[in-house]
Design brief:
This protein is α/β, with parallel strands linked by helices. Helix content is 39%, strand content 13%.
Length: 163
């Protein structure tokens, strides 16, 4: 029902094979505070099968725009982001979530060529799904807190019927 989309895997994520796995990433604490998950998830050593099962049972999926791991998303090219955006749209058409929540306005603008986009619900759907752009939970996005991320993530989750 709800597909969260990161920009690309960080090096820690690639090493653990777990999305948003870096210890200072606020993604899972924000999901917990928002009521999207009901039990803490600590993925820094790799997400457990039980964690994955609980996410799937709630109708939550996680993917990225670009598959290539980097230390920082700023290492990606606009071409990689555009190609990843096209691949994401195909994935959404195939998997049919109700809502897609892309975490990162700058990456969204580059991937989909919507230079004037602002965070929140987007006018144009993606692959038939309602599209939201939410804040990136990376520790590099220092002006966001777990509380502000939780508010943004909850709105998208409510639209998907997850909470």
């Amino acid at each position: 029902r709800l597909l969260f989309v990161g920009i690309n895997p960080g090096l820690w994520t690639a090493a653990t094979q777990t999305h948003f796995a870096h210890p200072v990433n606020r993604f899972y604490p924000a999901l917990l505070e928002a009521g999207i998950v009901t039990e803490p998830i600590s993925p820094s050593a790799g997400m457990t099968d039980e964690d994955r099962d609980r996410l799937r049972a709630r109708g939550i999926g996680i993917t990225n725009i670009v598959r290539r791991a980097t230390a920082k998303a700023s290492e990606l090219t606009d071409e990689e982001l555009r190609d990843g955006g096209a691949e994401l749209a195909a994935t959404v058409r195939r998997t049919a979530p109700k809502v897609v929540a892309i975490a990162g306005i700058t990456a969204y603008r580059a991937a989909f060529g919507v230079r004037a986009a602002v965070p929140g619900r987007q006018a144009e759907p993606i692959g038939g799904a309602e599209l939201w752009v939410v804040p990136n939970p990376s520790g590099l996005n220092a002006h966001e807190t777990v509380a502000t991320l939780a508010v943004a993530y909850r709105v998208a989750a409510e639209a998907a019927g997850v909470v």
